[in-house]
Specification:
The protein is α+β, with helices and mostly antiparallel strands. The chain contains 9 helices and 19 strands.
Length: 362
């Protein structure tokens, strides 16, 4: 099996890259070891924080701002191409604190040129009466958005098929065969796969493939557990975040509660301790959720690169292998910008933002 570009991994990063390349006339195959889009991409909460390209000053803020500016257009194009609504909407968010005033965090948003408002206890209560009175401060981010992960993945998959992308499920890439001049071929249980270019986008499962290509790396899975609640009457409308945990209200009365960060290897399961912690968190933030129905729980394995930025770009020591992984908690939100950057790299186009911060080192 030969192709111009083979994307290894069918999560939101892999499918976004495949769609972007196919939209620019590049023949693409996607190989996924399981079912496309059913790992960390499916499990996430779909939070899309705001950004401002004019005020972005580092690798994280530039990638976030670039994606933020792209989401409305990507949503429209996907809906026009497939008829599928991905649930994208601007809902706003509160970043909350039980203990500190958040002035430093607020200043960082201001310096980036993102719309933000610092709120005291009484203002929080007036805007979201369901909140616990324990909160002493919050930051209102009116331009924060959300998307429904399963809906978005369904739209991406349909758009890929519509653009001629070949999707092969149940085809794991186990290692590499090294040819002349640093060119690699992919080894699978059913044989060798040749391609002009490979893109590794298989999340935490990219680690052994990077190692097989001669790249020492710290990529590892970090388990995140999520609980889904259902209420009969909506009590709050904005995303509520406290540190790394959150409540995301959906329009249908469901509320996502997440998430844990657990380094347990490739063990993807829910635990009593993890879910109990999430439920305690939810009811502390919004006491009225004590009577909410616990509808479902799940977990996902998010790829942590060992640093605060993903790996995007060419793999040193090879002539035809590239990587896009390690986005950790930001895979879905940064997927549009990652896809465009990868297309620009592969087609020798000028990148929209500097790519050096995301480069892979041997």
């Amino acid at each position: 099996m030969a192709a111009d570009v083979v994307v290894i991994g069918g999560g939101v990063i892999g499918l976004s890259i495949a769609w972007e390349l196919a939209e620019h006339g590049v023949p693409v195959k996607v190989l996924d070891q399981g079912r496309t889009g059913r790992e960390a991409s499916w499990a996430g909460a779909g939070m899309l924080p705001p950004g401002n390209p004019a005020g972005a000053h580092d690798g994280e803020s530039r990638l976030r701002a670039m994606s933020c500016s792209m989401w409305p257009d990507w949503t429209s194009r996907l809906r026009e191409s497939t008829g599928i609504d991905n649930g994208y909407r601007r809902c706003g968010a509160f970043r909350l604190s039980f203990e500190r005033a958040l002035r430093e965090t607020f200043s960082a948003w201001q310096n980036e040129g993102v719309r933000a408002e610092l709120l005291d206890r009484s203002t929080l209560q007036s805007l979201e009466p369901a909140l616990s009175p324990e909160f002493i401060a919050g930051i209102h981010l009116p331009d924060q958005c959300q998307v429904r992960n399963p809906w978005h993945l369904k739209a991406l998959l349909a758009a890929c098929y519509r653009n001629g992308v070949e999707i092969h499920e149940g085809v794991p890439v186990t290692n590499w065969e090294r040819g002349q001049a640093g060119r690699l071929s992919a080894r699978t249980p059913s044989g060798i796969v040749e391609a002009e270019r490979f893109i590794m986008a298989s999340g935490a499962w990219t680690q052994p493939l990077l190692a097989g290509a001669g790249i020492r790396n710290s990529l590892e899975p970090v388990r995140g557990q999520i609980a889904l609640l259902r209420v009969h009457r909506r009590t709050f409308t904005r995303i509520l975040e406290v540190g790394n945990r959150y409540l995301v209200p959906r329009g249908d009365g469901r509320i996502l509660v997440g998430s844990t960060e657990e380094r347990v290897g490739f063990v993807k399961q829910n635990t009593a301790r993890g879910i109990r912690g999430l439920l305690d968190f939810a009811t502390r933030v919004v006491p009225g959720l004590q009577d909410a129905e616990l509808e479902q729980c799940w977990s996902g394995l998010r790829p942590h690169s060992g640093r605060d930025l993903p790996l995007i770009g060419a793999v040193p020591g090879t002539d035809n292998v590239f990587v896009a992984t390690g986005h950790f908690r930001s895979g879905l939100q940064m997927s549009p910008a990652t896809a465009v950057l990868m297309r620009q790299i592969l087609l020798n186009q000028e990148p929209s933002i500097p790519i050096t911060p995301y480069s892979v080192s041997e």
